Amino acid sequence: MTNVDTAWLKRGIIVAAADHSDATLLRYATEADVDADPQRLRRIVALCANAAGADGVVVRPADVEWARKRCPNLHVVVGFPDALSGDELMRSIRAAVAKPYLAKLPAKIGFEISGQHFMSSLSAACSTGSTHGDLALVAEPYFSASLATKDRCTILRALSSLKCVVALKLDVEAPVDTAVLYSRSSGRIPWYARSEGLDYATFYARVAIAKRFGCAGVVAGAALWRSEMATCAVGLNPELISVMRRRIDQLRQLWRNEPFA
Question: How far apart are CA 45 and CA 37, in angstroms?
Fold first, then answer.
């Protein structure tokens, strides 16, 4: 049994993701080819804290201690880089349990799955991580377009059977079909919608449908904050905070007002 606090990972939560490695999402409109300021990820976290209403935030390992001090009312999830191989996944999971200030927090790791063979690597990595310390994994599988529906179901069932996996972060590209599939296959654990760089209006429309078929909440990045960060010249301002608060409230209302289909 893990000692990581995961009780808050329940139905209806809204979590803002601020662990993006894609620098283009963090540029202002005037910066076409200029590297993004890494401090902007921290400004996004501060924006979430000031807007209020979010349950948590996903941050890079380097920002964990800062986020816990800056945002004491937000739950923190450690967002590790996406794993492109079984070896990379193993390294990320070992890192998640190796450092005391990371070991007591849920870890979010994304990984591309092109077939069921990846599951053996994932199972071994989770087993190793659990052996060396507490591990609570928010798993974010990316399915290749060619992967058959039955294989996706098999993989999601296998993920949900791993004791260390406490939640799934999944796409809502086809909100009815995928939501039904994910809900039937995820078993005991909740699954949350990721935004995949969508604009907020598109993302909200898809989540509103997916929620009716079992989506348990949102772990979203750019859909919540990208357009505002792109036009904001410096730092935070009351208008940005107001926009973020409205979006968080609008998403939360979905779980307050709509029953399952």
Answer: 14
Q: Which two structure tokens, joined as six digits, stand for 238? A: 């009351």
Fold of 13-256: TIM Barrel (3.20.20)
Q: Where are the domains of the chain?
A: 13-256
Bridge partner residues of 169 (DSSP): 192
Contact 52, 88 (CB under 8 A): no
List the pLDDT tens digit at each of the 261 positions of the chain: 467 889 999 899 999 888 865 555 544 444 444 445 567 777 778 777 777 788 999 998 888 998 998 888 899 999 988 887 777 877 888 777 777 778 789 999 888 876 556 677 777 777 765 655 578 899 999 888 788 888 888 889 988 988 889 999 999 988 999 999 999 999 889 999 998 888 899 999 999 999 999 999 999 988 887 765 555 544 566 777 788 889 999 999 999 865 544
CA angle 122, 126, 127 (to 5 degrees): 115
